[in-house]
Amino acid sequence: MQDLDSFIKALPKAELHLHIEGTLEPELMFDLSKRNNVPLKFSSVEAVKQAYQFKDLQSFLDLYYAGASVLQKEKDFYDLTYAYLKKVQSQNVTHVEIFFDPQTHTDRGISFETVITGIRKALVDGQKNFGISFQIIMCFLRHLSEEQAFETLKLAEPYREWIVGVGLDSSEKDHPPSKFKRVFEKAMEQGYLTVAHAGEEGGPEMIQEALDLLRVRRIDHGVRCTEDKSLVERLIQEQTPLTTCPLSNIKLCVYSDLKEHPLKKLLDEGVKVTINSDDPSYFGGYLLENYIACQKAFDLSKEDLKKFAIYSFEASFLPEEQKQYWISEINKV
Ligand code: ADE
Ligand code: ZN
To answer: pLDDT exceeding 90 applies to what percent of the chain?
Structure first.
């Protein structure tokens, strides 16, 4: 491993944009398919990997929702989450804020309780065994209705204390943040923090809406803010973090080459931009691989890399004291 790669690895890092369903590796997908008797349309692990060629967000989502069908029991959600934690502890990821999509499972007849209990048990064990702290964020699928999002918010009530915030994901086109304004208002009344995917495939107006109508603390992706200068100024002014996912954006053809990605430009302009992995099993890299790819594409210096690691904690929902602890650890590397 090169000098800078080991430097990146040594930096404590927080992951703020990670769909737990997107960590389902083909091997585990096959194991669970057998364990639960859920047929897959692929004949081998290799065939699954071959199919991971996407032309846009929707072509990915179709495969992603199909893959999630093998997740049936609490133990499956536990195994999925624990495998992710085991992987990222080797990359010195010390804090994770993970998304889960309850509707992907409740719509298949899997109970909310099964899903969240399995995920949370693994996170608790991961904290004990690997020292990784965690938060859980529940996302509403924006291609579904407002009414279905309200139903999901209701289902989450018994688990309110386990879930720090609500988010918005799935197909951005034709499903603007405004569709979920009332759901987010209710969620905020219940004390949830809010985040939303915006400006991934949709334009800067999606980011504007997420800020104004959903009162989000962070924008997930947000890369298309670059098309509106005054929006970029606002993000700088308000220091609203963007949780960008560089390898995801390449795999989903938002950019054809990482060198075109606005990450470094936004960093230099003063936007609080962070590096994350989104759906690492599908996009060819976990957090470390995302950092390394960006280092190479933009020739990032150690100072830049430290800044990304520091931002990852500053933008997190950790208490201030823990943020400061990790920032001081980063400054020792
Ligand atoms: N769900 C999982 N990954 C996603 C992404 N990149 N955008 C929107 N929804 C998603
Ligand atoms: Zn995402």
So the answer is: 99
In this prediction, residue 1 carries a pLDDT of 55
Amino acid at 276: N
Of the candidate CATH numbers 1.10.443.10, 3.20.20.140, 3.40.50.620, 2.30.30.40, the domain formed by 2-330 belongs to 3.20.20.140
282 CA distance to ligand 2 centroid (A)? 12
For residue 251, what are its two tokens? 């795999």
Q: Give the separation between CA 331 and CA 274, rounded to whole angstroms.
A: 17
pLDDT in tens, 51-65: 999 999 999 999 999
Confidence of residue 154 (pLDDT cuts 50, 70, 90): very high
Q: Are 183 and 150 in contact (CB under 8 A)?
A: yes
**Catalytic-labelled residue, pool 172, 200, 201, 289:** 200
Q: Is the pLDDT of residue 155 over 90?
A: yes
Q: What is the CA 189 to chain-centroid distance, rounded?
A: 24
Contact 183, 149 (CB under 8 A): yes
